[in-house]
Amino acid sequence: MDRRRNMLIGIVVGIVIGGALTYATGLANLFLAPHTSSAEYKSSESAIAPELATGEWINSEPLKLADLRGRVVLIDFWTFGCYNCRNTLPYVKSWSDRYHEKGLTVIGVHSPEFDQERKVENLRNEISSLGIPYPVVTDNDYKTWNAYKVEAWPTVFLIDKQGRIRWMHVGEGDYATAERLIQKLLAEEPTLETSDSTSHPRLQCSWNVTRGCSHCIRTGLPGSVAPTLDFIPAHKEQQMNDLLEQAVAAHGGLDRWNKFTEVTATMIGGGGLWPMKGFEPAPIPTEVTVAFHEENASISPFGQPDWRVAFTPDRVAIETTEGAIVEERANPRAAFAGHVMNTPWDLLHRAYFSGYARWTYLNTPFLMTMPGFEITELPPWQEGDEVWRGLRARFPDGIASHSKEQDFYFGDDFLLRRHDYNVEVAGGFPAAQYVYDIVESNGLRFPTKRRAYLRGPGLKPIRDLLLVSIDLSNFRLR
After folding, report:
1. pLDDT at residue 140 above 90?
2. Where is the domain boundary, 232, 253, 276?
């Protein structure tokens, strides 16, 4: 077994080294990326958004913010030569597509950096090439840029139905927060409040939460301490994402899932990860039971014919079938400190990994509707001749799983096709898991085959490195 383990390690190391060379070329972009910062404002302390300056409009007749009262407005300051702006565009386009009919208007304000970006013909060509469907207005003289006190590309503002600035973000990222706030602002009822809150400059300027209001610091005005942010608990305010709603329905529906408390399935596992962890795969069927509405799982047999796993996020134990404890571990996640991909595991390490993984798999996609999950839609993924839509789930602290953020991709029938994550308990190596042969049991749908590969550059699976294989059958719900 040692020879096989060493051979697998050698293959993985070679691929990782090759991937590292590709990854290294992106380091310059990492260091050149602008600093990111965000700020959210309560309605009572937010400023009326400045009106857009005159410019040439593309994809629309000229718009005025005053005429858009009653709608939520997202303003994206960008320029077509900015690679950070291009990285943000798929998310902005997706929000426009999915929320326009629900009351969101997206406006791109094109504030050029270089001379070629000032030419409207070039801008029109880029808008067409990038597939931007929403209105874009030119800002060649930076009047709108200056009115909003923008300092970097891209900068995004969210404006509520009363015309007040409620959130701003500089740079890439924070997409989950942006979508969550779009949903919140769309759900708010417009009020009759009309007072102008522009008397304090910090309500309109860009600021960093660690340093306070940059405009106030520069001018010496009060307000250099950052205001209290009204962040939104996902489980209280979040509406179900449209794609998630369709995926949940395709897998049997939330009402049906809520009628059951657990599922048991017969499982046979294998793959190259186990020899690296010091275990020889044995094609012995096991019975896996996971709860639906809280995180716990049991697996039997495990290690010995009369042993079983009892898993929760805070404790993992190996018991006899009579319930006597063979060994147990509290705070099991801490036992993986310093582990890398080829660090050997003991039986409790494997039990913890197997418990949280099986719970995650058998509860997908329904787990994303549970309290504390933050969901945002990803840009579409091209897989061969198919285009899959994706969701990124940020797991709450109380849920044990592969990684804090995980990506789920669905086909045009809204059934799960792929699941991406990083295995944090084994050094964080990236994995791409494909699922196949979905069956129905009591009205709920489950994949019967799962194949997890090492994920290489460009999110591509390395098909020669099958890390984990899982075959499931005989689903029983209670």
Report:
1. yes
2. 232
